[in-house]
Design brief:
The protein is mainly beta. Helix content is about 10%, strand content about 50%. It has 2 helices and 12 strands, in the order αββββββαββββββ. It has helices spanning about 1-15, 95-100, and strands at about 25-35, 40-50, 55-60, 65-70, 75-80, 85-90, 105, 110-115, 115-125, 125-135, 140-150, 170. The chain has a 12-stranded mixed sheet, with helices on one face. Strand 5 and strand 6 form a beta hairpin. It is globular, with a radius of gyration of 16 Å.
Length: about 170
């Protein structure tokens, strides 16, 4: 599960590859994960990302959760649990590198391989629109981005997590 989080989170740092010409990226997303027995979970929310390595994934469904990416630190804030987990990125897939070596598949489709995993991308209007892959646990993942915007003014404070005193901090 942690590896899935790192793969997903790493995307926030990498939405700028394939020679995209923008400093910020915002979009709504729907992420579907289906395991090999056919069970599926769907997440949705909004991503806000800024070069070089900042992102905020705000999950709204099925539960509220915020994931802050600030260079090599990831903070997963879960309001229902009143806790924030601080993680260091390590051994995570660098989708930035994957996107940079993506090969055209025809039209607006691209693919790139990292180890045993093949990532497929759909690009529209010079922005990522869809990402699909099968992870090492044989889960099929699809992330679809909508209402995509680039080069909006985004305050650096957007990527800062300031816990209230009642939040349990897990490091």
């Amino acid at each position: 599960m942690i590896r899935k989080i790192f793969v997903f989170i790493s995307l926030s740092i990498s939405v700028f590859a394939l020679n995209f010409d923008y400093e910020t990226f915002e979009a709504n997303f729907v992420q579907s994960i289906k395991n090999k027995s056919g069970k599926k979970i769907v997440y949705s929310g909004k991503i806000t990302a800024k070069k070089p390595n900042y992102a905020l994934w705000e999950y709204t469904k099925p539960v509220k959760k915020s994931v802050y990416v600030n260079n090599d630190t990831i903070i997963v804030y879960e309001p229902l649990l009143s806790q924030a987990k601080y993680l260091k990125k390590k051994n995570s897939v660098s989708l930035d590198a994957i996107l940079k070596k993506a090969k055209p598949e025809g039209g607006d489709e691209y693919s790139a391989k990292d180890g045993d995993i093949t990532y497929k991308f759909k690009i529209k209007d010079n922005m990522i629109e869809r990402l699909t892959y099968k992870d090492s646990l044989e889960n099929d993942t699809e992330i679809v981005f909508s209402e995509r915007k680039k080069n909006s003014q985004i305050s650096q404070k957007t990527f800062e997590f300031t816990p209230s005193p009642d939040i349990d901090i897990i490091k």
